[in-house]
Description:
Two copies of one chain form a homodimer. Chain A is globular, with a radius of gyration of 20 Å. By secondary structure, chain A is mainly alpha-helical. Chain A folds into two domains: 1-49; 59-193, Tetracycline Repressor, domain 2 (Orthogonal Bundle). Chain A has helices spanning 8-22, 30-37, 41-48, 51-75, 80-97, 101-112, 122-138, 146-162, 164-170, 175-193. In chain A, helix 1 (8-22) packs across helix 2 (30-37), helix 4 (51-75) runs parallel beside helix 7 (122-138) and helix 5 packs parallel to helix 8 (146-162). Chain A is built from ten helices and no strands. At the A-B interface, helix 6, helix 7, helix 8, helix 9 and helix 10 of A face helix 6, helix 7, helix 8, helix 9 and helix 10 of B. Chain A binds a DNA duplex through residues 2-4, 6, 8, 29-31, 39-43, 45-46, 49-51.
Amino acid sequence: MPLKDTGTERLIKDAAKRLLFAEGKLYATTQDIADAAGINRSAVHYYYRTRNQLISQVFEESMTALSLRLDQAMLSDHPFPKKIEELIDIYLAEMIAYPYEETFMVTEINNAGHKLVTKIKEGPVSSFLEEVAREMEAGTIDKMNPVHFLINLFSLLSYPIIMAPLYQQFFQLAKDDFNKIIQERRDLVYQMIFKTKDGKTDHVKM
Amino acid sequence: MPLKDTGTERLIKDAAKRLLFAEGKLYATTQDIADAAGINRSAVHYYYRTRNQLISQVFEESMTALSLRLDQAMLSDHPFPKKIEELIDIYLAEMIAYPYEETFMVTEINNAGHKLVTKIKEGPVSSFLEEVAREMEAGTIDKMNPVHFLINLFSLLSYPIIMAPLYQQFFQLAKDDFNKIIQERRDLVYQMIFKTKDGKTDHVKM
DNA sequence: TTTTTATTCAACAAAATTGTTTAATAAAAA
DNA sequence: TTTTTATTAAACAATTTTGTTGAATAAAAA
């Protein structure tokens, strides 16, 4: 524990996040992290003692932050379409900034066996699922298990960004062209989500 | 190079695949792989000399195989809905068997900087994109950039499987319940893909 | 200025991982 | 059975990574 937070502690954690979440360097060593933070490797150990503790903190912090952001969006009192719009924007911004955050989480769970149960609140998700169910009753969106609705939403937003290096090759697109595709998805996903079987799509256009 | 393929060579590669793609142990050491294959670590080196060569072969082989399977599905001469059905089944089976294959590919690209350009054939993808475009003209599916259509398809299928450990927690579901959700997606994704804005969904039901 | 706190430096020990080698043994083929 | 081939065992060197320590500086606070 440092006696005072002079910012270096954060610097280290942010550098780790950048390497892991933004650059996808999931094996980053303490040296890598120190370099990325522009500090001495000793400092990493000084502040976090072990690599494991640093990684764990990054893991927990991100999990909590992500959870919180989503909860916030899900609990806002805006009308449903607006709320979805917010959810999309929040999620998209996060994924573009940190495409490998979720990948990291999953691999950490698979490798280190982190527990994250405690970090997830019951409330927001289940109450949002109920709201989704009500919207389905109202006919705004197609009827299905609300869990599928949310999975669809996140899938359509996250996956292409995570797999960008793969699909860029797959579709033989230049980096810029692929980025343009990603940008287009904000509206496209919104449309898809609100496209009902009976053709009513008369909602607030984004 | 072994003088003869007695099966051990494959055994090693398969064990590596299992660890990397099925269990998500993306950092598996030569020892881990040897253990998983039930053989001596020396054998790993005997057959592949270095870890890197083994990993590279696994990478290339999977890339080629995946590419081939998809090409095959995309080039079949079945009618479009049937073709999509095949594509879904192929993709879903692959993802369920090897949820982390794509994750591995991407992290390898980000870390080792593998080139895979040469592995992807021009033909099948672009001709399939054209077919998708024709179907859009015909009104079977919604009009959009065909690239988006394919990205949507793969996103909806892959992402929930890749992120299962995360979303299982997120939705507070038991493993079995979540698996049931995944199974439901085969039909659900099919429906979504063929759900047009004007409400015509009168295709072959799966 | 003195004292405390933050950071670096250098050196090192301990582990873990990789890769090589040589001999031993087991299995298969001739 | 002899010979080749496949596999293991054991020991080792090289490398990388981790983690510790204590002294040296630098910066900030008192």
